[in-house]
Amino acid sequence: MRIRTFAADTAQGAMAQVRAEMGEDAVIIAMDDAANGRGVLVRAAVASAEASANARSRLGPIEERLEAFLNACLRGHTPAGAGAH
């Protein structure tokens, strides 16, 4: 498994970096505000090719997962599997 952290001004910008560098199989494991209060930090992981193929069959596009995560956070709920950060 490979884990990386991406910094950008917006979540969309960070997601573009994730897709470009890790591919469509990457999974967002955390999202936080940048320490300076400007921008976001997104941590993403990608597993082996076999695990990625299995994950792809179970999950929608990365943008849909991110949107669901952000909406749940805005409602004050931590999505299942998101973990505390």
Task: Give a quick precis of the structure.
Helices cover 41% and strands 25% of the residues. The chain contains 3 helices and 3 strands.
Report strand order across the widest sheet: 1-3-2
Number of H/I helices: 3
Number of domains: 1
Low-confidence stretches: none
Helix percentage:
40-55%
Distance between the termini: 20 Å
Give structural notes.
The chain has 85 residues and is of the alpha+beta class. It is globular. The model has no long low-confidence stretch (mean pLDDT 77). It has a 3-stranded antiparallel β-sheet with strand order 1-3-2, with helices on one face. It is 41% helix and 25% strand.
Helices and strands, with pairings:
Elements: E1 2-8, H1 11-22, E2 27-33, E3 40-46, H2 49-58, H3 62-74
Antiparallel strand pairs: 1-3, 2-3
List keywords for this structure.
85 residues; alpha+beta; three-stranded antiparallel β-sheet
